[in-house]
Amino acid sequence: MKIIIDTPEKIAEKAALRYVELLSNKPDAILGLATGSTPVGLYNELVKLNKEGKISFKNVTTFNLDEYVGLEPTHDQSYRYFMNQHLLSHVDVDMEKTNVPSGINLDEAASYDSKISSAGGIDLQLLGIGNNGHIGFNEPGTPFGSETHLVDLTDSTREANARFFASIDDVPTQAVTMGIKTVMNAKSIILIALGKAKAEIIKATLQGEVTPEVPASILQLHPYVEVYLDHEAASLLD
Ligand code: F6R
Question: What angle do CA 37, 39, 42 make, to 5 degrees?
């Protein structure tokens, strides 16, 4: 596991260079993407590099980690909407090759893993981390062997995400998420964490016991993970 500690701006630039490197070696790479506030800086950087002609998404296929149940793709808090707003609509990707789990047709979740495998498997999975250690929406206690599935969101996750909705009552109670096994099947992984609120869970994830109670701790067992942290998120590491 490689740990990179820098300012949020430098982290966005350095992580973006990983995509430049990957896509210059493999223009048709399969990218696993995440939503949330953490990857926004990276996505801005990728859009900039794409406009400058330094990276092309023309031949890539993307698979997002998760989606809220009950939100149409056009809902402004759906993860499909987020991805289009922050990255996909601004780069030269083929929209037909972009995948976000459906929060409406829940039957599709059962075939999401095989769709990923048929496409060739994820080359680089991007992750943020929840304050409780969730990756995707795999909350504490999720079996490490899980594939894409439907989950009930914990109160802490709904509270953390309420800032994007008019009120907590509007935050969906369920989501569809890649499982932990789906994430671990990726050939390489980038985890980004920013801010003091992530410091404790980053310590538990990187230096604590590998346990389903801290879902992200499984990343200690993945052969190729890069962790990008700002100084605050890294502040409790030994
Ligand atoms: C998003 C996702 C979540 C977030 C996590 C951190 O697709 O799967 O696991 O990465 O909740 O969210 P932020 O970045 O908003 O702190």
Answer: 135
List the CATH code of the domain at 2-229: 3.40.50.1360
Task: Decide: pTM greater than 0.85.
Answer: yes
Question: Where do the structural domains in the chain lie, given as residue ranges?
Answer: 2-229
156 pLDDT more than 90:
no
Q: Give the neighbor-by-neighbor strand order of the sheet with 30-33.
A: 2-5, 225-229, 188-193, 124-127, 30-33, 61-64, 98-99
Catalytic sites, residue numbers? 66, 132, 134, 139
Query: Which of 33, 38, 125, 214 for mutating ligand 1's site (highest number of atoms within 8 Å of CB)?
Result: 38
pLDDT digits (tens, 9 = 90+) for 38-48: 999 999 999 99
Which residues on neighbouring strands pair with residue 98, listed in sequence order?
62
